[in-house]
Amino acid sequence: MIVAGRTLAGAVSWDADVVVVGTGAGGAPLGHALTQAGKSVVFLEAGPRVLDAEMNQRVPDMLARLYWDRGARVTTNGAFTVSQGRCVGGSTVHYTAWAMRPPRPILDHWTYHLKLTELDAKTIDPFVETVEKMLSTRPVQPHEVNAHNHLIERGANELGLRGGFVHHNRVGCLGCGYCLLGCAYNRKQTAANTFLPAAIGLGARLVSDAHVERVLTRGARVEGVRARLLDGGHGEVGTLTVRAPVVVLAAGTIHTPALLVRSGIGDASGQVGRNLVFHTTTTLFGLFDEEVAAHRGFSPSYVVDHAMDLERYPDRGYYLVPAFAAPAAIAPFLPGFGDDHATKMRAYKRLAGLSVMLHDASRGRVTVAPNGKPVIEYALAPEDRGQLVEGMIAAGRLLFAAGAKEVYPSSPGGMAFTSPDQLDYLTSFAHLENRVALNTPHPQGTCRMGEMRQTSVVDPWGRSHDVAGLYVSDMSVFPTSVAVPPSITTMALALRTARHLLATA
Amino acid sequence: MEVRRRDVLRGLVGLVPALEVMAGLTAVTATPAESHAAAPTGGEPPAGFLSAAERKTLAALAEALVAPGEKAVTGLPSVEEAGVVDFLDHLLPELPEEVQEKFPLLLWGMEHGARLLSFTGRPFTRLGGADRTAFLTGFAESRFEIRRLAFRALKNLVMLAYYQADVSWPGIGYEGPWIGRVDPPQVAELAGFEPPARRLV
Questions:
Q1: Which ipTM did the prediction report?
Q2: What are the tens digits of pLDDT across the range A349-408?
Q3: Quick one: closest CA in A to B62, which residue?
Q4: Domain A140-179+276-440 has CATH 3.10.20.90
Q5: The whole model's pTM is what?
Q6: Helix ranges (DSSP H) in A347-381
Q7: Which residue range(s) make up the domain with B41?
Q8: Where do the structural domains in chain A lie, given as residue ranges?
Q9: Active site residues of A
Q10: Which of B16, B22, B26, B172 best tests the A interface by mutation, with the highest count of A CBs <10 A?
């Protein structure tokens, strides 16, 4: 059963075995596994249920429907936008569907250096395989690679940089190019068209437009949650209380800690909201003589990973990732304004985008404002600033090697490079914040797992150190950046948490 | 009107929280509030969120930021044709309260800050093209983060408003969304794709 919050007006109370807060990569697989095992599961989602027919491929409309704060969530310094899903299916609805397994060196780092129990590849692999089967994960096929990604491949080969074609989660992709605005054709495999319908089919209940305000407790044990039922706009139509002996928070790296703080629980360690880590991303654009049409087809299908050596450096590195979008999403990031900017936009179909996606070592924090909303603090540590500049220079060189006549960073003011040697100018930036556009699609780590209750929020299975019956199942449990797109890892850990929960609860 | 540099800078600092949100507004809702008036058809502007003076300032800023030029030459419509001011006028009531409160102040700061910072004594709307460009460049490339942030906030909003408009697309060669234009299932059939077995929730 799926219902919208507005259809449950008044003060409603339900009972369940398990209530799952969030329907994205952390909540959906876990809820499905528990439902399969015969548990009565209720999913609560703050955002709306958006059907295929509502995906209209228009930037303003879809970001308003699918993203928190209309895609405009920012850090306190105004420098980073934080992209997170707010709809049934969570961020998987607007992800690029680039599928990567948790890197073995990262799992080894978590297992052997951070001493986390049973997180080695041998233990995790079966969960990963289950996830990949559900998402139809497969290698990109040659006919699926667009001109944009071929250009990047050409540039990498020219420079001798290591790269490769990725795996992704799509079935029969049509190549429309609007993955970041939700798939109107139901080809991209997300939590919303895999785990959730399977769970619903087995009897799980899902309420959309239900924003959980508090976790309810009695003593040191959870009793359930209370949610505000939203009318789809700014209004509220009632409240829903779900009483359950097990509460799973899968609201994401920003909202899970905020919910714990609002509820006044789970923070004996003082670590809730701390250890926030991004995959800081910035994009450079190359202007080519030939048409690229980077907005069609899907990206990324080819990724450059020459700067990733996780065996030697488990806490640093970056990827170079092809990225592009519809004009309204590109125009703000092209440098300059006036005639200069208009000229660049008139060459829209001859532009290619290449993002630097950092494996950050910086640490930020999520706190809660007096009005209950999360506040996100993040700044690049010097080593990450250096890495990002290095990545920007590498991206610029690659674009030139691929044939670009000019290269542009995403700076607010006008800036254009006409030869590779000019790229070293980027090293003169003392700070990158508000010099270039910075974004993170993958905030992680605000409720990190650990063996020691003094230094972590949950144990290695996602179970709260402080409150019985309380679990966390999303990217907030990651003890460090996972270095790769986190959806597969998040889903695999969710299945692992589910198994543990069934064995112990 | 007497405007002091101190007042302009103090005003900008007070705008910081709202500017941060605006700077992040790379994408926002296009859905107009139902209470808003229809787009102008000439004569008096509609009774929307912004005053007539604020609309005039915003239009001047947008013209300078987008610089579409002569449509016959560039293929780009004017800011008015693209409905930039109307789009933002409809959007503002949907944004957080701090933005609603501070956006008029940002416009005021840009309009009257130009009297001091352009060294002409004239407000932004009365500056010539070159002076407008120089004034905005001063913000874009300022060593003060607050001025760069103000520029980003304005630029992001204006560029979003202009390039989300269908009329801006022919000039840049963008075909627009497939939805309502082409029939992708037919494309899939031709390509031999199998439709997915699972359906969205």
A1: 0.91
A2: 999 999 999 999 999 999 999 999 999 999 999 999 999 999 999 999 999 999 999 999
A3: A338
A4: no
A5: 0.91
A6: none
A7: 5-174
A8: 2-138+180-273+443-504, 140-179+276-440
A9: 442
A10: B26
